[in-house]
Specification:
Number of helices: 9
Shape: globular
Radius of gyration: 21 Å
Distance between the termini: 44 Å
Helix content: over 70%
Largest sheet: none
Number of domains: 1
Length: 203
């Protein structure tokens, strides 16, 4: 009974989110029209179209790379170095991987999903994302150029242990979440592939 009620509550919350999203979008359009008329609304559509054209190739490349990674890297290797077999080394290795992997969210989130499906532990992937934000080595020269060496070193020292500790904490306090999140990621990927095939058939 509780499980059915919980499922109903989740569906109800999802419907409320969709309803709120659907109500708020026209509001922004009317607000733009009120402030700047048709030219401002047209400018918004034009800017959105340009952003879509810029982002779409990146999405295609990201999914191709993520698919290639799943083909090139075996599940045994992922499980050994980033999964349950890695033990305490998992968050540390995930942190190093996140610090070195180039590209923006259109690359590393598909890569993260691929690694989770291939057997990576959720705590290790938390370290991966945290290190991508805090440790990414490709951003350090830019950070030094704009704010200087001192503040860059201070920021790095303060955040040094956060990715590893975050991943280790997830593995310790939420040990059963990996399988649950893996099934959710697989479901999301299946929905995405189904939508893509449906779009191709419509064309």
């Amino acid at each position: 009974m509780c499980a059915v009620q919980s499922k109903w509550q989740k569906e109800s919350n999802r419907e409320q989110d969709h309803l709120g999203y659907g109500i708020s979008r026209p509001h922004y359009g009317f607000n733009c029209f009120y402030q700047g008329g048709t030219p401002l609304v047209g400018g918004g559509f034009l800017a959105g179209g340009k952003t879509l054209l810029q982002v779409f190739p990146l999405l295609i490349i990201a999914f191709v790379v993520a698919g290639s990674v799943s083909t090139l890297i075996s599940k045994e290797m992922v499980n050994r170095w980033l999964g349950e077999e890695a033990g305490w080394k998992g968050p540390f290795l995930g942190t190093l991987l996140g610090a070195m992997v180039p590209g923006g969210p259109f690359f590393f989130y598909p890569l993260m999903a691929t690694l989770i499906i291939s057997g990576a532990n959720i705590g290790t992937m938390i370290s991966f994302v945290a290190a991508k934000t805090l440790w990414y080595v490709g951003r350090i020269p830019i950070e030094i150029a704009f704010v200087g060496v001192r503040i860059t070193v201070i920021r790095f020292i303060i955040t040094f242990a956060i990715p590893v500790l975050a991943g280790a904490a997830v593995n310790y306090f939420l040990p059963g979440y990996t399988a649950r999140i893996r099934s959710e990621v697989e479901l999301l990927r299946a929905k995405g592939e189904k939508s893509g095939k449906g779009g191709m058939q419509d064309d």
